[in-house]
Write a structure and sequence with these properties.
With 349 residues, the chain is α/β, with parallel strands linked by helices. It has 9 helices and 14 strands. The chain has an 8-stranded mixed beta sheet with strand order 8-9-10-7-11-12-13-14, with helices on one face. Strands 3-2-1-4-5-6 form a 6-stranded parallel beta sheet, sandwiched between helices. The chain is elongated and about 80 Å long.
Length: 349
């Protein structure tokens, strides 16, 4: 017999709560029971109550106080994540908070410390840790077929004159707190070691707000590997989502395919030695290398599998894939990139 479903209250019934969480939960009624919803907008509350037949609240404090709510799924605006997650933890509730975990590193550390003392547990919804392409490429790297990987480039680009709250600094907007948590998390996983150095550049290009809609970050690990990130709402041409360079090959990937070019691992390359003498007409001694080139389909997977893993972590005591230390490290990179720029979010006291 399966353990009982987790009794869930959803805070924020907009694009994330209603548009993402609810559809993903509708196919998991054996694992999650939606017992409450909360939103400041009356129309959203009415829509939610009509579909799920459950209690609705206009204030998150009232939903948190509901004894029937076992876990609070926080899908409110980014600047509210810290306060809402803190209140739920203090009430002894389990918390599943949307990315970004918080809007700055100080809040992330404080929330982590609070979770350590709370009866409830804190989980962060880095659902793109379950992205099929990301996981398949990590498998390829781990196989060693590309040799020693020394550089990874990650990109998510487009062009849009976006005008909603996620383009406004005071609302916690900007690409670093929107797409950023997903891809910064990927970057830290690909880096495979603590960050040694970091470089960043932020720009406001096409959006009509005052937040950054284009940024680049380069991380160098203590292992020497470099991971580059580019997220842009101001790039009018496409770029590969993944480029991985290794000492014996490379790969490029976008969407559902991965293109590889690597040296045949069964072929033994003859030894070569650099010649200090006068060169001939060629640039070095010509050599035909045994390349293998192939395009393969990304292994199937679903990002909403994060709910299944969340259920197993809560009910069965299994390990949750995204640790709090990793979530805090993502916010640390984002805060460092924003620090001292016009795009730095400063919570109101």
């Amino acid at each position: 017999m399966m353990p009982r479903p987790i009794r869930l209250g959803i805070a924020g019934l907009g694009r994330a709560g209603w548009g993402m969480h609810c559809p993903e939960l509708d196919s998991r009624t054996d694992k999650f029971q939606i017992v409450a919803g909360c939103d400041t907008a009356k129309g959203r509350r009415e829509r939610f109550a009509a579909k799920y037949g459950c209690k609705v609240y206009s204030k998150i404090e009232d939903m948190i106080a509901d004894p029937d709510v076992e876990m609070v799924s926080i899908a409110t605006r980014s600047p509210d994540h810290f306060a809402h997650a803190s209140a739920a933890l203090k009430a002894g509730k389990m918390v599943f908070v949307e990315k970004p975990m918080t809007v700055n590193y100080d809040q992330a550390k404080r929330l982590q410390a609070l979770a350590a003392k709370s009866k409830g547990k804190l989980f962060v919804r880095h659902n793109r840790r379950f992205e099929p392409g990301f996981n398949h490429i990590r498998e390829i790297i781990a196989s060693g077929i590309l040799g020693e990987v020394y550089q990874v480039s990650l990109a998510r680009v487009g062009y849009a004159r976006r005008d909603d709250w996620q383009t406004i600094v005071d609302c916690g907007g900007g690409q670093l707190l929107n797409w950023g948590p997903h891809i910064v998390d990927h970057a830290l996983q690909f880096l495979g070691s603590p960050v040694k150095t970091m470089w960043s550049d932020l720009k406001q290009v096409a959006c009509v707000g005052d937040a950054e809609d284009h940024f680049r970050i380069a991380l160098t690990g203590q292992n020497g590997r470099v991971v580059e990130i580019e997220i842009s709402g101001g790039c009018a041409t496409g770029k590969p989502e993944y480029i991985v360079l290794g000492t014996k090959g490379a790969l490029v990937s976008s969407g559902d395919s991965i293109t590889l070019r690597y040296l045949d691992p069964k072929a033994k390359l003859p030894k070569r030695k650099a010649n200090p003498g006068n060169p001939g007409d060629a640039f070095g001694t010509p050599e035909k290398l045994p390349w293998i080139e192939q395009t393969i389909a990304v292994k199937p997977g679903r990002m909403d599998d994060i709910w299944d893993e969340l259920y197993k972590a809560v009910r069965l005591g299994k390990k949750f894939r995204v640790t709090l230390d990793e979530s805090v490290a993502v916010i640390q990179v984002i805060s460092a990139a924003k620090k001292g720029t016009p795009f730095e979010f400063k919570p109101k006291k």
